[in-house]
Amino acid sequence: MTSLIDCPAAGEQDETLATAVPDRDIASAVRVLRMEANALTALAASLDGAFTRALDTLGGIAGRVVVTGMGKSGHVARKIAATLASTGTPAFFVHPGEASHGDLGMIAREDAVIALSNSGETHELSDVIAYTRRFAIPLIGVTRRAGSSLAEQSDVALVLPSAPEACPLGLAPTTSTTMMLALGDALAVALLERRGFTASDFKELHPGGQLGRALLKVTDVMHKGDDMPLCRLHTPLSDVILEMTAKRLGCVGVLDDEGVLVGVITDGDLRRHLKPELLAERADSILSPRPKTIRPKALVVEALREMNEKQITSLFVIEADRPLGVVHIHDCLRAGAA
After folding, report:
1. Residues 187-203 pLDDT 10s
2. Which of 76, 161, 205, 317 could tie 42 with a disulfide, CB 3.0–4.6 Å?
3. Where in the chain is the domain with CATH 3.10.580.10?
4. Does 31 score more than 70 pLDDT?
5. Are 323 and 317 in contact (CB under 8 A)?
6. Contact partners, residue 300, CB within 8 Å, separation at least 6
């Protein structure tokens, strides 16, 4: 029997409990993460020809990819559809319950369906499965049971490896949904690489937010056509000043008779050559040769860096030595490239 002398003081007990609880929490979290990491390792090792056939199916359709699932699998299906759509594979989610009440009409014969069900026996999916069989719509089933109804009815069955759920009760979908989500990412990325999907393509689908701004090209923000300040070698400086004032970019590009950009005149050049007879002279008398330029496919962030390094405020965008436009530092800042 422990004596009162051996018992820890109340403050020491509280401190011990306070230390033990976070330790148990972290141990629980680590257990979950390791179980799910092991499941993903097993999933990677299990991929075989069925995965390739699924890619062939998804890459060969003329329509869109319809992703469906019920409950937690439905939440995963929504994310897979969003990832496919954002990486160049048109896709959308259909709720299986709503499909039985009219939304089957959203699935066309040129489409393919990815159906997610851990058990492979989700009864809400039955109408979707039957619809794909009736109209010969390709069906890819994702399930953990190879002998399930979903796997047997699918044109391609992607069977998840057997792995325990991270939930200590073995009931809450955890490991299984993690594998489904990762498999969806694998399909999306593999399709992306097959199609040669580029950062430029990605930007077209992500025009908003920081990502869209980071992928903006100079052609997206440049001044072009009649908004470009341009003159010829023989243009009187009086007209050059009018052009610079009208276009309000602080510079004028100088072209030769073939339309090649051979120089630039800035407002600084005008100030440096200021004299009474200046207006009577021509553009070729004060132009700065070898103007700073940038290629059309350059990103706005690259143009901003170039202008900061060269301590200039404008760059001409050229192709084959001919100007396509001019980008000003203020254009880059307005686009959020800072």
Report:
1. 999 999 988 876 666 66
2. 161
3. 218-334
4. yes
5. yes
6. 213, 216, 217, 218, 220, 221, 327, 331, 332, 335, 337
* Full-model pTM: 0.64
3-class secondary structure for the chain?
A: CCCCCCCCCHHHHHHHHHHHHHHHHHHHHHHHHHHHHHHHHHHHHHCCHHHHHHHHHHHHCCCCEEEEECCHHHHHHHHHHHHHHHCCCCEEECCHHHHCCCHHHHCCCCCEEEEECCCCCCHHHHHHHHHHHHCCCCEEEEECCCCCHHHHHCCEEEECCCCCCCCCCCCCCCHHHHHHHHHHHHHHHHHHHHHCCCHHHHHHHCCCHHHHHHCCEHHHHCECHHHCCEEECCCEHHHHHHHHHHHCCCEEEEECCCCCEEEEEEHHHHHHCCCCCHHHCEHHHCCEECCCEECCCCEHHHHHHHHHHHCCCEEEEEECCEEEEEEEHHHHHHCCCC
State the span(s) of the chain assigned CATH 3.40.50.10490. 24-197
How sure is the predictor about 337, in pLDDT bands with cuts at 50, 70 and 90? Answer: low
d(CA 177, CA 58): 21
pLDDT at 2: 46
Q: What's the CA gap between 54 and 51, in Å, rounded? A: 5
| Contact assessment for residue 114 and residue 140, using Cβ atoms and an 8 Å cutoff | yes
Identify the residue with better confidence: 333 or 243. 243
Superfamily of domain 24-197: Glucose-6-phosphate isomerase like protein; domain 1 (3.40.50.10490)
Tokens standing for residue 204: 């077209």
Residues ≥6 apart with Cβ < 8 Å to 207: none
Q: Taking CA 51 as the corner, what is the angle to CA 47 and CA 56, rounded to the nearest 5 degrees?
A: 160
CATH of span 218-334: 3.10.580.10
Distance CA 11, CA 18 (A): 11
